[in-house]
Write a structure and sequence with these properties.
By secondary structure, the chain is mostly beta strands. The N and C termini lie far apart (about 130 Å). It has six helices and 23 strands. The strands form five sheets. Strands 2, 5, 8, 10, 11, 13 and 14 form a seven-stranded mixed β-sheet that branches. It has three domains: about 100 residues, RNA Polymerase Alpha Subunit, Chain A, domain 2; about 90 residues, YbbR-like domain (RNA Polymerase Alpha Subunit, Chain A, domain 2); about 100 residues, RNA Polymerase Alpha Subunit, Chain A, domain 2 (Beta Complex).
Length: about 325
């Protein structure tokens, strides 16, 4: 029996020594403390979102054997916060070590900072808003800003009901006019005014900005008044007007008198002895939409006219 135990004793002694060395190395390894930043993974009810500022990360102090700490991948760490039963209002959540995902065995959580979250929960709301371009500066001397066209001109946003319900528009990134001497198009993003509100439409916004030579004026005399949506024979007093317009010189010079149309709207008006007082709007016939944005009506000799409507119906 003793002979069997002593057989190959040098190798057995070497193996015992190696095992003892490994045990000493493992049990005697120094333990270190390391601080990591762990993201928060907050689970909310499907119809709710967070309102107001909320932390996205917390600091967590971990302690363990130096070799394990070195091998730890901080990108695997995350605090799972389940508040899927929450209702709108304030909610306090205590963070615990058990909520930290990605933590290897043998490493302990020493401290969580902050260890308590105060969450504001609100109903999720979506709303379609108009897009308002943000213009900065002005064109150089001798040039003029005439207007903008936006596509799309509305966009859908989503956020806490308390934020979204009061919004009526969404602004864009700044668009600078300094140094601009001709029309240009720029791609911008929508930037909601409220921090917890986000844009749902991933498309960019194209803004066409009309910049051209400073405007000049042109007067058109004796322009006949035109009736719109006229059901009965009618007469206007005065029957013709003087219209003054302004715009870029090349565009204004190309406009003919017959393209200027002072319009009196007669929709819903029927015969009666007394004349109606009808406001005048000015339209331009045969002019491209891109050019219309650069035209302005400076004055009309009579902003309102008297329209007398007779008994004879117009046969169409």
């Amino acid at each position: 029996m003793l002979e069997r135990v002593l057989r190959n004793w040098p190798l057995k002694l070497l193996a015992l020594g190696l095992a003892f060395a490994i045990w000493v190395a493992v049990t005697g390894e120094s333990r270190v403390l390391q601080v990591y930043s762990a993201p928060l993974d907050i689970k909310l009810p499907q119809d709710c979102v967070l309102a107001g500022p909320a932390p996205t990360k917390v600091n967590v102090s971990l302690r363990g054997p130096e070799s394990q700490i070195r091998r730890l991948d901080p990108f695997n760490l995350a605090f799972r916060v389940d508040v899927s039963d929450a209702t709108p209002g304030q909610r306090n959540v205590q963070l615990a070590a058990e909520s930290l995902a990605g933590l290897p065995r043998g490493i302990e959580v020493v401290q969580i900072e902050p260890d308590r979250l105060r969450l504001a929960v609100d109903r999720r709301m979506q709303k379609v808003l108009g897009v308002a371009p943000v213009l900065v500066g002005a064109p150089p001397s001798g040039y003029h800003f005439y207007g903008v066209r936006v596509a799309p001109d509305t966009i859908e946003v989503e956020g806490p009901r308390s934020e979204v319900i009061g919004l009526d528009r969404v602004r864009t990134d700044p668009i600078h006019l300094e140094g601009r001497t001709a029309p240009f198009t720029v791609a911008v993003n929508a930037v909601p005014d409220r921090p917890a509100t986000r844009v749902l439409d991933p498309r960019g916004i194209a803004v066409q900005v009309d910049v051209d030579v400073s405007p000049v004026k042109a007067a058109f005399d004796a322009v006949p008044v035109v009736f719109a949506n006229q059901d009965y024979v009618a007469t206007a007093q005065p029957s013709s007007l003087r219209v003054v317009i302004s715009g870029p010189p090349d565009l204004v010079r190309a406009i003919r008198a017959e393209q200027v149309r002072p319009i009196a709207e007669l929709s819903g008006l029927g015969p009666r002895p007394e004349p109606y007082t009808v406001p005048i709007r000015v339209e331009f016939a045969g002019i491209a939409a891109s050019d219309l944005a650069r035209l302005a009506v400076t004055s009309v000799s009579h902003p309102k006219i008297a329209a007398r409507i007779g008994n004879r119906r117009i046969v169409r």
